[in-house]
Amino acid sequence: MSEKSVNTSIIIPAELLPKDGRFGSGPSKIRPQAIEALAASGKSYLGTSHRQKSVKSVVHELRAGLSALFSLPDGYEVVLGNGGTTYFWDTAVFSLIEAKSQHLSFGEFSAKFAASAKLAPFIADPEVIKSEPGSHPEAVADPSVDLYALTHNETSTGVAMDIRRPAGASGIVAVDATSAAGGMFVDAEEFDCYYFAPQKGFSSDGGLWIALMSPLAIERARAISGSGRYIPPALDLTISIDNSLLDQTYNTPALATIFLMANQVEWMLENGGLSFSAGRSAASSSVVYDWADASKFASPYVSDPKMRSAVVTTVDFVEEIDAKVIAATLRANGIVDTEPYRKLGRNQLRIATFPSIDTEDVEKLVRCIDYVVESV
Ligand SMILES: *Cc1c(COP(=O)(O)O)cnc(C)c1O
Fold it and tell me: What's the CA-to-centroid distance between 107 and ligand 1, angstroms?
């Protein structure tokens, strides 16, 4: 089992292999049924105008579906635009932060939004609260803060946090839910803006952002837009809000992305909604954590069970076993994207357990890891 003696020519017996070998944390597994439905749409959808009914009805279906999935209270709106989550951070800097934001920074993604806010000359430097990698900090109410930036699941480390309004806080609560959305429970009363992209739990492609916005967040965007601040139109949330209310985007979106995402939301709703989809992720992630807890050579990276993610699991390996070799061996056998987040730099595997991923396939995956470790 020494690093030197391993080889990646191990052939995992076919009966041990999962049916679908995609365990990446984004882009992630897309259900084959969704791709078939897209192909079956033939000439009636792809290649047609996004300003006409055939596309607008799918956008409408997506917006209504998300509203139902998250049981959005009256007045909340589903807003969407191009550019993915990274683009939404800059949109939020221009359109949602009035004077000062507070960021919980506990990994690559949460740090990036804070960095974006720091660059903006028209707002104060943000408050950034950090914690050790593998854990998350808590927000602290501060009267000078008008936006609290939380992250439901930090995809780089597999740390998740419950979404709650910080006690005593008066600002709006904006949550990066890019990997958590659809796979983890959330109460819409606890946020003003819950934003994500389609290439993770929603099993579609990247390049789009979606924000579930409360009346307070919409009001905030309108007030800032009317305040005289220079906002590039593509980053002006009020333009996106107005287009979304018409089931459109400001500029041309990727129609396939919208179709696949709408199909995924429909699948979640048909099977029981968020309790179904979050339930699947909870069951699948438990398979990984229970296996790692019982393993002689693996252990969950996140030590506090309450902070362990239900959608992105991270597992450390003992020094004698090179996780890179395991990931490469799995890859050679058709099981892909179990490598850890590259900048975390740990001897680790990262295994996504998004709603689309079958729990039986996760059970098979951990058996495959055992097989590889025994064989090297
Ligand atoms: C993937 C991810 C992002 C980046 O999403 P893009 O759509 O690629 O910009 C941001 N935040 C979190 C938590 C993510 O998982």
Answer: 12
User: Which is the closest atom of ligand 1 to the Cα of 87?
Assistant: 9
CB atoms within 10 A of CB 14: 7
Please name the residue that has the structure tokens 């099993």.
Answer: 203
pTM attached to this predicted model:
0.97
Which residue lies with its CA nearest to atom 5 of ligand 1?
Answer: 85
Q: How far is the CA of 85 from the centre of ligand 1 (A)?
A: 5
Report CA dihedral (20, 26, 31, 37) to the nearest 10 degrees.
Answer: -140
| Domains in the chain with CATH codes | 14-30+273-375 (3.90.1150.10), 34-270 (3.40.640.10)
Percent of the chain topping pLDDT 90: 96
- Ligand 1: distance of its center to the CA of 256 in Å? 19
Alpha helices in the chain (DSSP H): 32-40, 53-69, 84-95, 108-119, 215-225, 237-245, 255-270, 274-294, 323-332, 359-375
Ligand 1 site: residues with CB under 6 angstroms?
26, 84-86, 109, 151, 155, 176, 178-179, 197, 206
Neighbours of 23 (CB within 10 A): 26
Max Cα-Cα span within the chain: 66
- Rounded Cα distance, 254 and 258, in Å: 7
pLDDT exceeds cutoff 90 at 225? yes
